[in-house]
Specification:
By secondary structure, the chain is α/β, with parallel strands linked by helices. The chain has 2 domains: 164 residues, P-loop containing nucleotide triphosphate hydrolases (Rossmann fold, 3-Layer(aba) Sandwich); 247 residues, no CATH class. Helices cover 43% and strands 20% of the residues. The chain is built from 15 helices and 14 strands. The strands form 2 sheets. Strands 6-8-7-9-10-11-12-14-13 form a 9-stranded mixed β-sheet, with helices on both faces. Strand 3, helix 5 and strand 4 form a beta-alpha-beta unit. The radius of gyration is 23 Å and the shape is globular. The termini are far apart. The mean pLDDT is 94.
């Protein structure tokens, strides 16, 4: 434990100048700031390598900038080899007690536990630190497994936490980081490159390719194979490749089973259903359910799947130009999710509405297509929204050079102004 504590000293900044915390994610910092000072556990959930650790460091930096003593920050990143011996909640407890004994912080202690799902029984130490009336602590945690976190939090910490879902860089962050002007050219570059933070600091195409491939393998091996004891890695890998190659496609599990069997990757409905759920839990892909607008209910059957970042399509598949509308559709989906909306695929009679976005009492409808320059295309994209007879906002999004205004209350917006 002494060696681990020495590593804790090395990775914290007690009495030292904090390191560069990277590009500021102001949107997330503002969200967390709203609940700062409360006993609520702040939970940052997101796929690996989307910048959760940097956001934690930025929160720590803000605390010390406002006059808080650096020794009142306890930070443990379970991804680091320095903390490989920290395996259970008891190890964290012992390390925390040693920290209090050696460092002797006075006043509130801010506890940051990074990739907390790697700690067995993590919810016990989180619950203890956040709720013990004898401890003046505020707890922040991150994790890369949505189901495990939501399940454990809901079971053991119900009503005592607030979640924040972290996504890769948005288009606005992308152009701010790269100092690019807002417009069609920079948006097309964003569609092509994606928003993975580390990827945007790399230049060489081969290095980018290797980075994305290694990230994909890390997610599959650490967040799925290891956690769920998956035996058929080639099938899991092929399933992800299928989803990468068919973003925004409407598929039933039976159809994907048939595809896999035709490709000699023999499987069944139960296995593939489990593998799809594991991919969603790792947050490398997202599933959009279908919603019957007229009947006001979720429709069972085929779903649509979107990537958490378009770099997976760029570097793990081919044919970027072949499906620009689908790339745009994926980007709009991520934008809506990052803005806090629940997103569904709409169905109205024989028409499909690309997205229904809901947040509280707010509902918005979206159709997405690369170009509306052709009158028949424009007529088709507007027609579905015009048939929805309610007063909620309706919008067609495209990559045309300028907005066409709208039709009968349905707005047209270019993607970079969404």
């Amino acid at each position: 434990m002494i060696e681990t504590f020495n590593n804790l000293i090395k990775n914290n900044h007690w009495g030292k100048k904090p390191p560069n915390s990277g590009f500021l994610r102001e949107n997330y910092l503002a969200q967390v700031q709203k609940v700062m000072g409360s006993r609520l556990i702040k939970v940052l959930i997101g796929q690996r390598r989307v910048g959760k650790s940097y956001i934690l460091r930025q929160i720590m930096g803000r605390l010390t900038e406002k006059g808080g003593p650096s020794k009142n920050v306890f930070y443990l990143n379970k991804e680091l080899a320095d903390f490989s011996e920290v395996e259970t909640f008891k190890d964290v407890r012992d390390l925390f007690l040693l920290y209090k004994k050696k460092i002797r912080p006075r006043g509130k202690i801010y506890v940051f536990l990074d990739e907390v799902q790697e700690i067995e029984g993590w919810e016990k130490i989180v619950n203890s630190l956040s709720q013990d009336p004898k401890e003046d602590t505020e707890v922040f945690i991150t994790g890369s497994n949505s189901k495990m976190l939501s399940s454990e939090l809901g079971t053991h910490l119900s009503g005592r936490f607030v979640p924040f879902e972290v996504f890769p860089y948005s288009y606005e962050e992308f152009i701010a980081l790269k100092r690019l002007p807002k417009g069609k050219d920079s948006f097309l570059e964003y569609l092509q490159e994606g928003g993975l933070p580390e990827l945007n600091h790399l230049i060489d195409p081969e290095t980018k390719y290797n980075y994305v491939r290694s990230l994909k393998d890390s997610i599959l091996l650490n967040d799925i194979v290891k956690r769920h004891s998956v035996k058929e890695f080639p099938l899991l890998d092929r399933l992800l490749a299928f989803l990468i190659g068919n973003i925004g496609g409407l598929f039933s599990i039976n159809r994907i089973v048939s595809f896999m069997n035709d490709a000699k990757m023999h499987t069944n409905h139960e296995t593939l259903s489990n593998y799809l759920s594991y991919l969603r839990e790792s947050m490398i892909v997202h599933e959009a359910e279908r919603y019957d607008i007229r009947g006001k209910n979720i429709i069972a059957g085929p779903r649509k799947y979107y990537l958490n970042d378009l770099s997976f399509r760029r570097y793990l598949s081919s044919g970027f130009d072949a499906g620009l509308s689908k790339h745009l559709e994926n980007a709009v989906y991520l934008k809506l999710r990052a803005d806090g909306y629940h997103v569904y695929v709409g169905s109205l009679y024989d028409l499909e509405v690309d997205f229904i976005a809901e947040k509280g009492s707010v509902r918005k409808y979206f159709q997405v297509f690369a170009s509306l320059a052709d009158e028949r295309t424009a007529e088709r994209e507007f027609r579905g929204l015009l048939k929805i007879k309610d007063n909620h906002e309706k919008c067609v999004v495209s990559l045309d050079d300028a907005s066409f205004g709208g039709r009968e209350g349905v707005r047209h917006r270019v993607a970079w102004d969404l």
